Automatic annotation (TrEMBL):
EC numbers, comma separated: 2.7.11.1
Originating organism: Mesorhabditis spiculigera
Domain Protein kinase: 26-362
Protein name from the UniProt record: non-specific serine/threonine protein kinase
Compositionally biased region (Basic and acidic residues): 347-362
Family label: Belongs to the protein kinase superfamily.
Composition bias, Polar residues: 292-308
Keyword Transferase: yes
Kinase among keywords: yes
Stretches the record annotates as Disordered: 289-362
Matches recorded under PANTHER family: CASEIN KINASE-RELATED
Length: 362
């Protein structure tokens, strides 16, 4: 009960309330949003109202419960210290803690992609806008995976646009359920045999639905659903479903017929890629993926180890492959079906188009 009271208090901080970090006092201006474990406020530095930031506050949880803000801090610190540009991560300004809560201060960003999409005619983006947002999301995922983390909750409300001179940049937010998948040596961690559901039902990958360990490929599967929703006039086929089993069945159908997700392409739109080629986006993804039956079977055999140990795992040269200490089990028909998927399975491999520039020809 005390924890609930503390959470309610965090969500109702009054304008003018001061919160101190180790070095700087911040003044609450207004509430920007709230979630299950805390809230986000617009703040400014005391004595200088021109320095405005976003402050994310999380109530301290019961003993033994991990703070979600801890993972967010790790990722933003890693992005800030990385040699990569990490353009799509907000800049961490400050952080601090109090007996009742912890907080971090970040640069202020604008509307979420979800809000921007709602304001558009028909609630869909043009092909040009959809490709730009999708490209920048892929760049963000490429950076995040290179840092050794997966997001596990890719959706429009976790993407936002910048403000001012950075209004053309898409930012990736909310790393509360992200997971570190590489150890200190840079090797992929061994996966757990069974996991809890981590994600949003509408965009979750098939592995998430079946409570299997997620990896980089699952972030990319979420990205496919995200991209499809940007251009589909009616949204995703399972948009009005609440039953997770029904959603899972619809996603299985989408794996068999991925083009059905992209009916928003009302005419043969083409884009120019950095290799000079002109192609429809989905055709380009498939052309750079193992889509033929022979190639698909080969990729499944080659990827058998990575599917067990995690995306990208390869044993060191000259060393035998380690085996998890668990009796062998028969694969279900649903698991066998997943290995036959074309587009979504293909882009989940190392050849996904994160590093290629995508510019609409219009």
């Amino acid at each position: 009960m005390d924890w609930v009271k503390g959470l309610l208090g965090i969500r109702t901080l009054k304008k003018g309330t001061k919160i101190w970090s180790a070095t700087t006092p911040y003044v609450i201006e207004k509430l920007l949003g709230e979630g299950g474990f805390g809230a986000v406020y617009k703040v400014h530095v005391a004595g200088d109202p021109s320095l405005t930031y976003a402050m994310k506050i999380e109530q301290r949880r019961r003993p033994g419960k991990e703070l979600k803000l801890k993972m967010e801090l790790k990722i933003l610190l890693a992005a800030g210290d990385s040699d990569r540009r990490c353009l799509h991560f907000t800049k961490l300004i400050d952080r601090g803690s109090r007996p009742e809560f912890v907080f971090m201060v970040m640069e202020l960003v604008g509307k979420s992609v979800k809000d921007v999409q709602r304001e558009r005619r028909g609630k869909v983006f043009t092909i040009s806008t959809a490709c730009q947002v999708a490209e920048q999301t892929l760049e963000a995922l490429e950076d995040m995976h290179a840092l050794g983390y997966i997001h596990r909750d890719i959706k429009p409300s976790n993407l936002t646009i910048g403000v001012g001179a950075k209004r053309h940049i898409v930012y990736l937010l909310d790393f509360g359920i992200s997971r570190k998948i590489r150890n200190e040596d840079g090797e992929i961690k061994l996966p757990r045999w069974k996991c809890t559901f981590k994600g949003t039902v509408k965009y979750a990958s098939l592995a998430c639905h079946t409570l299997r360990e997620q990896s980089g490929k699952d972030d990319l599967e979420c990205w496919v659903y995200l991209f499809a929703e940007f251009v589909h006039p009616g949204g995703l086929p399972w948009r009005n479903m609440d039953n997770t089993k029904e959603v899972y069945r619809e996603k299985r159908k989408a794996h068999e017929r991925p083009r059905d997700l992209f009916t928003g392409f009302s005419r043969p739109e083409t884009c120019r890629f950095n290799d000079g080629s002109m192609s429809a986006p989905l055709d380009w993804v498939q052309r750079h993926s193992p889509v033929t039956p022979e190639q698909s079977r080969l990729s499944v055999r080659q990827d058998a180890t990575s599917s067990r140990y995690g995306d990208g795992y390869r044993p060191k040269q000259g060393q035998p492959q380690q085996q998890p200490q668990r009796p062998p089990r028969r694969r279900s028909s649903s698991s066998r079906g997943m290995t036959r998927s074309s587009t979504i399975h293909a882009i989940s491999r190392d050849r996904h188009p994160c590093t290629r520039k995508l510019v609409d020809s219009d």
